[in-house]
């Protein structure tokens, strides 16, 4: 994989990871809710107007364009596993920003993901 292709794939992955983190921050700001007919409009409006959620959706939109550009240069059997890098990034950022637990079991799983992505990237 050449540097341009790798940059496009990595940028797509990072934007996708950022989108997830922004969506989580947005749901934290809105709070826990249940979709019911009576609160569909108020909750829908809260979600639609929450800046973090809007930022997350924007990241998704840009990541889609960048990802398509990357897929035009890299086999999907190599590109798709790279999305797993997002799991690794999100686990550590969620630990830092949201106080989520990083147990030994999660860290072991992250290690397997990293090794797997490394093996696929080298193929």
Please give the structural blueprint.
Layout lengths: L2 H28 L9 H10 L1 H21 L4 H7 L1 H15 L5 H19 L1
Helix pairs in contact: 1-3, 1-5, 4-6, 5-6
Write down the overall geometry.
globular
Radius of gyration: 17 Å
Low-confidence stretches: none
Could you give the count of β-strands? 0
- Structurally, the number of domains stands at 1
SSE order: HHHHHH
**Averaged pLDDT:** 92
Fraction in beta strands: under 5%
Distance between the termini: 10 Å
Count of runs of 4 or more consecutive helical residues: 6
Features:
mainly alpha, 81% helix, 123 residues
Briefly say what this structure is.
The chain has 123 residues and is mainly alpha-helical. It is built from six helices and no strands. The mean pLDDT is 92.
Verbal overview:
- There is one protein chain.
- The chain has helices at residues 3-30, 40-49, 51-71, 76-82, 84-98, 104-122.
- With 123 residues, it is an all-alpha fold.
- The chain has one domain (3-122).
- The longest helix is centred in the first third of the chain and has 28 residues, at 3-30.
- The radius of gyration is 17 Å and the shape is globular.
- The mean pLDDT is 92.
């Amino acid at each position: 994989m050449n540097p341009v292709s790798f940059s496009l794939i990595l940028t797509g992955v990072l934007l996708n990871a950022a989108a997830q983190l922004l969506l989580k921050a947005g749901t934290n700001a809105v709070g826990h809710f249940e979709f019911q007919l009576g609160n569909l409009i108020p909750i829908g409006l809260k979600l639609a107007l929450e800046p973090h959620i809007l930022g997350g959706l924007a990241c998704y939109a840009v990541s889609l364009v960048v990802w398509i550009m990357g897929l035009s240069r890299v086999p999907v059997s190599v590109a798709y596993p790279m999305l797993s890098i997002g799991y690794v990034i999100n686990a550590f950022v969620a630990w830092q920003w949201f106080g989520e637990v990083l147990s030994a079991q999660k860290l072991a799983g992250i290690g397997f993901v990293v090794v797997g992505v490394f093996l696929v990237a080298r193929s």
